Amino acid sequence: MIKLFTNKVKSKLGAWGPFRKLTALTESGLFPAAVSGVEPGLFPFLYAALAGSIGGRGLVVVPREDEARALTNDLSLFFNENVVHFPAWQTVPYSDVSSRESVFQERSRVLALLTAGRPVQVVASLTAALGLLPPKSAYSKSLLRIAGNQTVSMVDLETKLALRGYSRVPRVGLPSEFAVRGEVIDVFVPHAERPLRLLFDFDRIESIREFDPVTQLSDSFLPECLIPSVYEVVFGEREQKVFLSRCAETGAHPAAARETLDRILSDPHAVGLEYYLPLFFHIPRPLTDYFGAQDLLCLIDWERLVVKEETVKKEYAHQHKLALEAGRVVPPPDRCLAGLSETADAFQRRLVFTFRKQPEDISLPRTVAFSSAPPRSFFGNIDFLKQELDALLAAGYSVGIFADYQAQAERIRHLLGERAVDVIPARIESGFSVPQMKLQVIAEHEVFARKKRTVRSLRKVESEKIDSFVDLEEGDYVVHLQHGIGCYRGIDRVKTSAFERDYIRIEYGDGEFLFLPTEQVNLIERYIAPGGKAPRLDRIGGKSWSARKEKVKQSVAELAEHLLGLYAARKAAPGFAFPRDSEWQEQFEAGFPYDETPDQLASINDVKRDMETPSPMDRLICGDVGYGKTEVALRAAFKAVMGGKQVALLAPTTILVEQHYETFIDRFQGFPVRIGMLSRFVSKQEQRKQLEALAGNELDIVIGTHRLVQKDVRFKNLGLLVIDEEQRFGVRHKERIKDLKTTVDCMVLSATPIPRTLYM
Fold first, then answer.
1. Does one domain contain both 728 and 614?
2. How far apart (Å, rounded) are the C-alpha atoms in residues 610 and 608?
């Protein structure tokens, strides 16, 4: 679907006069040129079509860092993994606080790709593009190129990895780490998906493999690998001498320079390393040094770039003055930053973009004027959207709506019915319109007025069983299937009469120790103490563990009997089958300002399926704080109200009730749903009005504390009961809750582990 629509846009661009003129200029090598009237949303489509026609790599410079990240995401629709973001440091210049390690890793990855000649498109903010870097020749020498059957000394490789900023650890688990184990060196290259395993046969590389850092199992073989420096510099003797020499050029006292260097070498992250990096090279160079004569430079929004350059240089000058007053050794701003003109002049093939139609202040010999319109916003008004789409389609427009993810795309398709609109499951930053091409592109957040991105790591996470052993540390408590609770004391190498083997050493009561062969690790699990309290250690051969297991078995049997009786009664009781999702339900769910996680979608689908059956629902939604339990309840509540039923949400505290009430009011905005609140924050007079409305079916949703379970609260047509943190209610309140749960659908939300929730 993405490919079909982008090809359609490319086809329309190819027939558009301004684009044909721009393509003719670039293919003829008539640079530089100014391009005006291109909306931000149109630029990724235009750049992809242009790069496809002229080939080569490209550097796109935008004013701000957030714009660089957004543009990288948009361009990834066309270039996939061949578009990368070169981040700025994102710290105050000359401060002692260093950038996040992920910033160092991403920059190192981009420089390695450029040095290796990969066909990548690079997006950078102006601050990142102006920062001075190691010369390409020096950076190329710092890359470790390792191939199979290559002769490499293991000791030398360990030294080289340490000089390049890698930390030696017993076991590799994070980027920028390496481990040495016998004839094996494991290395986790910055921003690689998986670490590398180098297997040696004396001083010869026998094989290079990728492996899983959790299971430690290797699989795919590689013919060669490229290992970049973590910090863009090798802290060798030559580089240290250059640093001291360049510090002397700035007028720094030799002792102060030496002290600064020692601080950098001992802990690079503690001194604001990024602003010292240019001092390790005689002539540092800007990012443009990593590109060739045939590569393309695009400067976006020229007027703002000029203003931004002035702002950045003023900030550097001010912070440099403060650093000198504090007696610190720091390089002057001109040793850290290049100029915008210098950066632009380094590219013969460059295009300067301005969003104004007439770029009077850009004195370039050639200008191409485009005509495009900014995106429209529909503020969640689906009827208005449909009317506009009908008018556009009648006028012969091609329309594409970009949804952030697949589930949202399906909702939008359902809302639009049979209209000939392309709905693409991909996120873009902004839409646009080109009347001359009869093309309209709409971003999802322009339809629903708001959209927030879920952190990528959360979107990718799926539920997995916890591997409790690999994360054990000495002093952690464990449970042995036969002997009970003990304390993990590490792994010992024990020599027997025949051979040596590894044993897991576990301490028990009275100072006794159990030595468990590592191949029997399945017999133990991590012990999770309630409240974090240290447990009492069992004795090997003692009766405490057996007695505890028998008591738990009896409790489980009683609980199972009670639950069976409860569920049998509810199964026999008549319930209400809610209707299937309506168009309003689709519209309500599409207004959720985040991407649903896979587990969240699964929970929502299960709840809806239960509500559409005639048997009363009884669901527990268990998840940590911030993982979206409330949204599951919101969608269930909306479904219940659309089915003509009332909803009650019960929460243990007034603060939580207030939070839920504000969330419900915000999410139900624009829908004819009446929502009330009962708690001590509400006056008695207002409470009486709420109770009358509830009894008269004039209130659709009520949110309250234990006030909701008092005898004077009467529902006219209750269909769904939502209980937040049920275990925090008292026994008397729970008896009343049981009465309410007899024939209505019930959902319990809890951040507490399931066993404790069921026990309470």
1. yes
2. 5
